[in-house]
Design brief:
CATH superfamily of the largest domain: Glycogen Phosphorylase B
Helix content: 40-55%
Number of strands: 14
Strand order of the largest sheet: 2-1-3-4-7-8
Number of helices: 16
Order of helices and strands: EHEHHEHEEEHHEHEHEHEHEHEHEHEHHH
CATH class of the largest domain: Alpha Beta
Structural class: alpha/beta
Largest sheet: 6 strands, parallel
Strand content: 15-25%
């Protein structure tokens, strides 16, 4: 009989709901369904607004007395069998990690991005993939003003440098969970602590509905996510101009800059942020999905959710995305910065419903095999067991 665990999840929520938040929410639900006792320690960056609060957040990203007090109370009161960390910036800080290890509690971290070695976490700056900060050169973030704010870029560089010099992560984490083999290769320190476990994106509806989802062709090319530079908003705008005869519908937050990029395009509908519960129907109404990411993505939930709904994806061939989308089998890959390449791939699928159906069926089969909740849970339990073994053996 499987041992039930007491698990503490630690996460600093972002200012807006993101795929990382969704992954943490899904993890808690998954562990609870299997009978584990789960608690969460969270802080929320949405409260940050004024300059004084932002300044306090910078210092708390280096060392947060409040978070340390809170964690001590949880460790002593809840006595978790394992602590599973996600994002710690800016209100929790890596300063909690030594406290956890002092109590010989196994410590696992899911690395949703590349923030261990890149201050912004994206390996993306000024419209291009950028790895200048790797190898202890965080000062590039400040010199290049990677965030677009001098103060913010300097703060990001300083907090990353501080964590590296303190050995905050690499001295205390027992297992690092990477979302792709590409991510593991870029982060691995040779210690054997980095393992790959993809996010789960299990189907939330009747599995038998898969067959009827493939009928009808679909009404538009869809996109789910923030309409930002690193997500490829400029590529999307260029593609929409290239293909005025194809309708595009985008579900995700956008700002005035994104609105200007799509001005005058009658084939584009911007829905804005959509509640998670509405997305399955959004995928099913699409003929195909597009993901023109310019940065090294982790394991985008939107991509796997589309696969669950038997929708092929035209996706950037960048970072670990090519591990998820098999070119010509479950979708099509395109050069990340090439509007023409994306346009040709999208038009090819749009004009060939039979090909869409075939790739969509293969995508759903892969999702069932690799991205289901059960496969994720079994992999997670092995990682927890490894972390506990590592802790008990000293």
């Amino acid at each position: 009989m499987e041992q039930l665990l007491k698990i503490l999840l630690v996460h600093n929520r972002y200012g807006v709901y993101s795929g990382e938040e969704a992954a943490v929410d899904r993890l808690e639900a998954l562990l609870s369904r299997h009978g584990h006792e789960v608690r969460r320690y969270e802080r929320d960056s949405a409260a940050l607004g004024s300059w004084p609060s932002v300044a306090r957040a910078f210092f708390s990203s280096l060392y947060s007395p409040r978070a340390r007090r809170d964690i001590v109370r949880l460790l002593d009161g809840f006595r978790p069998d394992i602590v599973h960390v996600h994002n710690l910036y800016p209100l929790i800080s890596p300063a909690i990690l030594p406290l956890i290890k002092e109590r010989e509690t196994p410590l696992v971290m899911t690395v949703h991005n590349f923030r261990l070695i890149c201050p912004t976490g994206l390996f993306y700056s000024h419209g291009e993939v950028c790895e200048r900060c790797d190898g202890g050169r965080e000062y590039w973030c400040a010199l290049r003003n990677c965030t677009g704010s001098r103060g913010k870029s300097l703060a990001y560089a300083l907090r990353n440098a501080w964590a590296r010099m303190q050995g905050s992560y690499f001295r205390h984490i027992d297992r690092f969970i990477c979302l792709t083999a590409f991510q593991r290769q870029r982060l691995d320190d040779g210690s054997g602590r980095f393992v790959v476990l993809r996010n789960s994106a299990d189907d939330v509806e009747d599995a038998d509905a898969g067959e009827i989802r493939l009928q009808g062709g679909g009404d538009y090319v869809g996109f789910v996510g923030r309409l930002t530079a690193e997500k490829g908003v400029e590529i999307l705008a260029g593609v929409c101009r290239h293909l005025p005869h194809i309708p595009f519908v985008f579900a995700g937050a956008y700002d005035d800059r994104a609105t200007r990029l799509f001005d005058g395009l009658e084939n584009v509908t911007l829905l804005g942020h959509q509640p998670a519960g509405t997305l399955p129907a959004f995928y099913r109404r699409a003929r195909l999905m597009v993901l023109p990411s310019q940065c090294y993505e982790g394991s985008p939930l939107a991509l796997m959710e589309a696969m669950w709904q038997a929708r092929p994806v035209v996706c950037s061939a960048v970072g670990g995305l090519a591990e998820i989308v098999d070119d010509g089998i479950t979708g099509l890959l395109a050069r990340a910065d090439d509007v023409e390449d994306f346009s040709q791939a999208i038009e090819r699928l749009w004009c060939d419903p039979a090909l869409c159906r075939r790739l969509g069926e293969a995508a759903r089969k892969k999702a069932r095999r690799d991205y289901g909740d059960q496969a994720h849970y079994q992999g997670l339990m092995r990682i927890y067991a490894d972390a506990r073994q590592r802790t008990s053996s000293g």
